[in-house]
Fold this sequence. Notes:
This protein has one domain. It is 78% helix and 0% strand. The protein has two helices and no strands. The chain has helices spanning 2-26, 32-64.
Amino acid sequence: xxxxxxxxxxxxxxxxxxxxxxxxxxxxxxxxxxxxxxxxxxxxxxxxxxxxxxxxxxxxxxxxxxxxxxxxxx
Length: 74
């Protein structure tokens, strides 16, 4: 039952809420300023996610010695 709740919560967060926002903007239910704020926030969060993920991967590669002069034995 716990897995079902986690699945449904993930589905709501990844599908239902963004679809509601998109339809709200399309049918002019949301004010224009709120739509701009939501879009700007989405772009900023996406950039943070991408840059943060790349930095994390680089840190893990350096930490494990992947690019050291010795032969990598991974």
